[in-house]
Amino acid sequence: MPSSAPARTRASDLLRAARCEPVTRTPVWFMRQAGRSLPEYRALRAGTAMLQACTRPELVTEITMQPVRRHGVDAAILFSDIVVPLAAVGLDLEVVAGVGPVVARPVRTRADLDRVPELTGEHVPYITEAVRLLVAELGDTPLIGFAGAPFTLASYLVEGGPSRSHVRTKALMHGDPGLWHALCDRLAQVSGEFLRVQVQAGARVVQLFDSWVGALSRSDYARFVQPHSARTLAAVAGLGVPRIHFGVGTGELLALMGAAGAEVVGVDYRVSLTDASERIGPGHAVQGNLDPALLFAPWEVLREAVVDIVEEGRHVPGHIFNLGHGVPPDVDPDVLTRVTELVHDVSAR
Ligand code: 1CP
Hints:
Blueprint: H1 7-10, H2 13-18, H3 39-45, H4 50-53, H5 57-71, E1 76-77, H6 84-88, E2 93-96, E3 100-103, H7 110-113, H8 125-138, E4 143-148, H9 150-159, H10 167-175, H11 177-201, E5 205-209, H12 218-234, E6 243-246, H13 254-259, E7 264-266, H14 273-280, E8 285-290, H15 299-313, E9 319-323, H16 333-347
Parallel strand pairs: 1-4, 4-5, 5-6, 6-7, 7-8, 8-9
Antiparallel strand pairs: 2-3
Helix pairs in contact: 5-8, 8-11, 9-10, 9-11, 10-11, 11-12, 15-16
Bound molecules: coproporphyrinogen I.
């Protein structure tokens, strides 16, 4: 049973919004809320490599808690990375500061696939431990578990690191669809199991990040990506946790992303919540979508943008306030605290 969490957690505004139920205040959290925008994070992380840090449950717990204490957000998100399960099954990769994940030997052939075995809970005991510690400490506040979706993970594996164009990934997808589907099938197992481990240890919500899938057309998404994301999300269907599905630049893909099996679809700042909700259809909540750049604007400008989004969110079936993408590392963290308070104040009813 996944359930040491108090029954109160079930009634949190975040969970209610995700299920399109009435809330007392609009719930808010920020993608990448833990991390470099916080001086207390930089102090803790100093001298420890990113992937190393992710395997230390006490450190993970402390880093995950920092933004919850500081900002009063409605959810914690496990401090980890989308490539953690790939490293756990034995891929030789590193998260390079200021760059992102770098893979020593990219995955581009059928023989390379043998280097990506299936994940079991035994590969990631430190995740189970960290989630348990966090659930005990969080009390009412739900913990969000997460994973990378097969397309975004495949992009790192095929390219060998971060890419803007995803050229090799798209060339593989179209040039050898059999190999592409075999790779994504394996990644769906890895990510699905990674989510399941987190939920079984007590995570109350999951988010599947398909950060870079906005690089694809709708037809490519439907053919090459959606079945694999659907399989990933299906791994936690029936466990009673809302599933959030997010990517950047996905205006054309929102309906298909919702149909992949998510109760909540994350929206970036390019599409309004109203338009997004219409595209996704009834019965789904939306999450978003303040442009992170506005965190650097004068307070009055930022204030108006936040209030507009909260107002828009009142007219969709369910709304979780967030940014359109992650917190920029150089943002003033006090601004995030003010935004959190503002969302709560203006939405209180
Ligand atoms: O607070 C939180 O949100 C939890 C921490 C978290 C999450 C949710 C980290 C820590 N990574 C992630 C997910 C993640 N990792 C995503 C999906 C979210 C998104 O779209 O932003 C992606 C695409 C990655 C891959 C990754 N890892 C990048 C992006 C590189 C690129 O392609 O442009 C980077 C920079 C990392 C490293 C990383 N992950 C997390 C942190 C704090 C860092 C920086 C560490 C460092 O530089 O030392």
